[in-house]
Amino acid sequence: MIVTPASFTPLVAAVAHDRPMTFVFRGYDLLVRESDASVPDAAALKSLDIAADAVFPVGLLRKEYCCTAWVAKDSQPPQGHVFKGLRTLWGRLDEETLAVAGRALQIADWARNHRYCGVCGKPMKQVVGERAMRCDCGHVAYPRIAPAMMVLVKKGDAILLARNAAVPAGGRMSALAGFLEPGESVEDCVHREVFEEVGLFVKDLRYFGSQSWPFPGSLMVAFTAEYSSGDIKVDPAEIAEARWFGRGDALPELSPPQSISRALIEANLPR
Q1: How far is residue 61 CA from its own chain's centroid?
Q2: In angstroms, rounded to a whole number, what is the distance separating the alpha carbons of residues 179 and 227?
Q3: I need a surface site. Which of 22, 47, 84, 149 has the fewest CB within 10 A?
Q4: What is the pLDDT at residue 137?
Q5: Could you tell me which of 111, 119, 147 has the C-alpha nearest to residue 219?
Q6: Tens of pLDDT along 179-227?
Q7: What angle do CA 6, 83, 52 make, to 5 degrees?
Q8: Can you give the three-state secondary structure of the chain, one letter per residue?
Q9: Rounded to the nearest 5°, which phi and psi values hold at 207?
Q10: In angstroms, rounded to a whole number, what is the distance separating the alpha carbons of residues 185 and 73?
Q11: Whether pLDDT at 67 is above 80
Q12: Are 64 and 100 in contact (CB under 8 A)?
């Protein structure tokens, strides 16, 4: 599971560094060298002519300064480089670099989307010493994080897995998940989403862990829960199928090992 490296220190102010690790995004795609998926060097960065106000500090990874930048959607990669989605780089980038790249994506996306004030339309300015943009009208915009719950429902020695409606038949199955609504606690969201998606009631929620999920800016908060009552009745707009898997049952394709979903499932497989 991808987590923030122990060797990483977040920063909100730039530091002097001869060769910073620069994560450049075009939308949600990261610029990498085509041959080895490494981040671009100084020569490649220079060819992009990135404006100084489009570069933002991220932190220190193994004492190496990391920053992030965004470029216009019509920008072309330098020779020998390509723009790739972070998901496609799983297994090519080491997990520490990938974790920092996910953080960099969220910062770049926030900076790109808050160049102008959402209240009065005037240009925004970065607040010194804080991860925030401020307008002369007084409006302040912080990076937006969308909390979401994930829950693995258990019934005896069986676990409930579901296939999202967007996944083809026979494809990946996972624990249930859903975004919080205004005014909800995470626990409220667990009960609501389980009932809405599969028609079940649950009890005895137990916190499992959390994970930043930068697609584009989520925080996944994972639980286990015990089945209480009800029969499986899926919401076809969200879930294509959901069923119990017990001891000895062949498992379907699961979420990638970089995800908390996979960690949650593997920690609770019937033994």
Answers
A1: 19
A2: 21
A3: 47
A4: 97
A5: 147
A6: 999 999 999 999 999 999 999 999 999 999 999 999 878 999 999 999 9
A7: 75
A8: CCCCCCCEEECCCCCCCCCCEEEEEECCEEEEECCCCCCCCHHHHHHHCCCHHHEEEEEEECCEEEEEEEECCCCCCCCCEEEEEHHHHECCECHHHHHHHHHHHHHHHHHHHCCECCCCCCECEECCCCCCEECCCCCEECCCCEEEEEEEEEECCEEEEEEECCCCCCCCCECEEEECCCCCCHHHHHHHHHHHHHCCEEEEEEEEEEEEECCCCEEEEEEEEEEEECCCCCCCCCEEEEEEECCCCCCCCCCCCCCHHHHHHHHCCCC
A9: -65, 135
A10: 37
A11: yes
A12: no
Amino acid at 255: S
pLDDT digits (tens, 9 = 90+) for 93-149: 999 999 999 999 999 999 999 999 999 999 999 999 999 999 999 999 999 999 999
- The amino acid at residue 132 is A
Rounded to two decimals, the pTM is 0.91
Cis peptide upstream of residue 216 (ω within 30 degrees of 0)? yes
How is residue 110 written in tokens?
């926030």
Surface-to-core class of residue 229, CB atoms within 10 Å of its CB (0-12 exposed, 13-18 middle, 19+ buried): exposed
